[in-house]
């Protein structure tokens, strides 16, 4: 049971066409899917098992709502969104409680995510007013050339479970600000936070059809959303594997795409780094959300002169981390999302050990029940091991020893992914060399935390397409229209 100050935020129905529905086609109770707490396996809620027909209904509603929503002034849309932001802040404790119950992250981290999620609503409510066009000096005297920006239209979002609130607001807020309407299909593991956000949007005055949330059969709903020629854009955050499928499904309708896919972030510590800062950054980047973020450090490259000191200090701190239910005071690492996630982490650790890595700490499931895995450190890791090739998505820090800058850049870039990278050095010349050489969409220098609403988040290579947040984030929901006027 999740105890909420406002129990009406715990929904077991979906918002489609301005109505809260529980069953295909009507108000009668229908089939539901349970939502479970990954720390205990207990059921915390039920959401409707909807499918293709409801996705079609949502698209039709979004299309009906589009003309009026896009015709409002940006100031007007921004004011409604500002009310949504205020309501999210006012209900932050409840949203965090729901998130911890269905996702597992410690309550303080969940609260942090709610504030982070809210910051996108606030930012894009403001950015709505700054959708500027351009005038272009014409090549001939008898013409006047200008560029206007218009909303893309009906948009869809398919979101993951690791950030149940922020992955939604980072897409829905710029869409609404731009004048688009949006259908959200949240992850099956974490639909409750998504539905609570929809309650608050409705309370803020977001009209029927402008923001809808649909739960149920991911493949069926995804198939309708990607196949529709009314849906002009899909924004997806999740695995590269599913991203590829959705991209292929979107090809026949040449849908605009934003894709935030997998990462394999290198975290490089040079001999001349500030060791305290590097340890702090490694902890924040590696163990946040139990290692389940796409920008989590996946490979830690430590230069040989500082390697042993770094490994010893990291192990000392990691051993003090408290594993447990996110609701327990003092817990810093929660459970993994499900059994499959635990199995993946186990297989990566086993593969590393079989190939000669050394286990410094962790490396097993503690006797807590649920999907827990101990914060782990491995040393003597090489590029051939699974921990180097694939995203582990768990609380495992594999430490690689390296000698030269050239060598580490080559190893860091030796991956099909290109989302986030981090490096620590006090040498200003090296800062520029390394920052420019890393083939990543985002680079942190002397910090392990880079995400915020004012900066462009996104990857290159097979980590995706497009950017979220910042002034660039709203462009993803706008079309450029060029107007050429002959006045001669
Ligand atoms: P993860 O591996 O982190 O769970 P996924 O990429 O599998 O990430 O899932 C991210 C989102 O994509 C979820 O909302 C999930 O329901 C959805 N999804 C997964 N497979 C499909 C599919 N074939 N079509 C549409 N959506 C999908």
From TrEMBL:
It comes from the Bacteria. Residues 31-482 form the Aldehyde dehydrogenase domain. Gene3D superfamilies: Aldehyde Dehydrogenase, Chain A, domain 1, Aldehyde Dehydrogenase, Chain A, domain 2. Pfam families: Aldedh. Transmembrane segments: none annotated. Keywords: Oxidation, Oxidoreductase. GO terms for biological process: gamma-aminobutyric acid catabolic process. Coiled coil: none annotated. One of its GO terms (cellular component) is cytosol. One of its GO terms (molecular function) is succinate-semialdehyde dehydrogenase (NAD+) activity. The active site is at 260. Belongs to the aldehyde dehydrogenase family. This is NAD-dependent succinate-semialdehyde dehydrogenase. The lineage of its organism: Bacteria, Pseudomonadati, Pseudomonadota, Alphaproteobacteria, Acetobacterales.
């Amino acid at each position: 049971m999740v105890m909420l100050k406002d129990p009406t935020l715990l929904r077991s129905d979906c918002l489609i066409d301005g109505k809260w529905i529980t069953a295909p086609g009507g108000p009668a109770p229908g089939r539901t899917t349970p939502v479970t707490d990954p720390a205990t396996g207990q059921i915390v809620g039920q959401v409707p098992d909807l499918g293709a027909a409801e996705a079609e209904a949502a698209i039709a509603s979004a299309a009906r709502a589009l003309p009026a929503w896009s015709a409002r002034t940006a100031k007007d849309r921004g004011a409604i969104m500002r009310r949504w932001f205020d309501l999210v802040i006012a209900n932050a404790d409840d949203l965090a409680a729901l998130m911890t119950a269905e996702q597992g992250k410690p309550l303080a981290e969940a609260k942090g995510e709610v504030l982070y999620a809210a910051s996108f609503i606030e930012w894009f409510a403001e950015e709505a007013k700054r959708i500027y066009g351009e005038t272009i000096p014409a090549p001939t005297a008898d013409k006047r050339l200008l560029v206007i920006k218009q909303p893309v239209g009906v948009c869809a979002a398919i979101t993951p479970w690791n950030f149940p609130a922020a992955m939604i607001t980072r897409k829905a807020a710029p869409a609404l600000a731009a004048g688009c309407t949006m259908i959200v299909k949240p992850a099956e593991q974490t639909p409750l936070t998504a539905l609570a956000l929809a309650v608050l949007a409705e309370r803020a005055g977001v009209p029927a059809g402008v923001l809808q949330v649909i739960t149920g059969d991911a493949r069926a709903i995804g198939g309708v959303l990607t196949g529709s020629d009314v849906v002009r854009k899909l924004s997806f955050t999740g695995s590269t594997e599913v991203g590829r499928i959705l991209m292929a499904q979107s090809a026949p309708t040449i849908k605009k795409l934003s894709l935030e896919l997998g990462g394999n972030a290198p975290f490089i510590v040079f001999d001349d780094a500030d060791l305290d800062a590097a340890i702090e950054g490694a902890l924040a980047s590696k163990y946040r959300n139990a290692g389940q973020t796409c920008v989590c450090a996946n490979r830690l490259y430590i230069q040989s002169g500082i390697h042993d000191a770094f490994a010893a200090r990291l192990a000392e701190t990691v051993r003090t981390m408290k594993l447990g239910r996110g609701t327990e005071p003092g817990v810093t690492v929660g459970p993994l999302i499900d059994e499959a996630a635990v199995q993946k982490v186990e297989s990566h650790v086993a593969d590393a050990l079989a190939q000669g890595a050394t286990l410094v700490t962790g490396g097993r499931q503690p006797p807590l029940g649920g999907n827990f895995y101990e914060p782990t450190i491995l040393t003597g890791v090489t590029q051939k091991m699974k921990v180097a090739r694939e995203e582990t998505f768990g609380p495992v820090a594999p430490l690689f020893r390296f000698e030269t800058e050239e060598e580490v850049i080559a190893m860091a870039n030796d991956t099909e992914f290109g989302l986030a990278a981090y490096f620590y050095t006090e040498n200003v010349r090296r800062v520029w060399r390394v920052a420019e050489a890393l083939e990543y969409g985002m680079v942190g220098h002397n910090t392990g935390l880079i995400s915020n609403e004012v900066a462009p988040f996104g990857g290159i290579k097979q980590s995706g397409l497009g950017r979220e947040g910042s002034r660039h984030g709203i462009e993803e929901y706008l079309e450029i229209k060029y107007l050429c006027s002959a006045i001669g």
